[in-house]
Design goal:
The complex is a heterodimer of chains A (118) and B (114). Chain A is mainly β and 118 residues long. Chain A has strands spanning 3-5, 10-14, 19-21, 24-26, 31-38, 44-50, 56-58, 64-68, 73-78, 87-95, 107-108, 112-117. Chain A has no helices and 12 strands. In chain A, a hairpin with a 4-residue loop joins β8 and β9. Chain B is globular. The chains are: A mainly beta (118), B mainly beta (114). Chains A and B meet through β5, β6 and β10 of A and β10 of B.
Chain lengths: 118, 114
Amino acid sequence: AQSVAQPEDQVNVAEGNPLTVKCTYSVSGNPYLFWYVQYPNRGLQFLLKYITGDNLVKGSYGFEAEFNKSQTSFHLKKPSALVSDSALYFCAVRDGELLSGGSYIPTFGRGTSLIVHP
Amino acid sequence: DTEVTQTPKHLVMGMTNKKSLKCEQHMGHRAMYWYKQKAKKPPELMFVYSYEKLSINESVPSRFSPECPNSSLLNLHLHALQPEDSALYLCASSQEYSVSYEQYFGPGTRLTVT
């Protein structure tokens, strides 16, 4: 079985400061991890993914995420936040081990609302 | 072109109406999805089509009927909906229905059932 947790409903950060949006996961096999962003009244937009290889993944709009296998985490980061980064962020996981209940169906976290203050 | 388009943007329908939502992508993707999303919640998967065949139906009520006429188009036919079906309906596509491919989402259709 697969699951994902986003422990914070909301993250507040001042413009120019670094931001972190947390995500932890649970899978039986190898994790395939994704971050999406949703602006108001829009669909989800893909930011980045971890499949294999380098633990630090770089994505769109200056975002990056660090895969940490021992802590089963995949936190989203950005060195300097912009007001325009304010949006709803979703972490998603897929379990590569189908025989152990994994699924091609992605499981989404509940979402974290990021608010960047000017 | 990395765009998924959806029409209409907004739809208001009565409980006895029949309407359809349309989704289109020209990225050559072979997997297409319908999701339902309530405000500030994660999207809930409804259906998955892979190579134009229905692969997943997440126990969706029969008042929702999906159709995939070709590899670029996905429809969702609506009939006798309930007020609790009001939501944002998102279409998505991915290169294949597999673990490693990200999904590309359309802007959604905001459905209100009166």
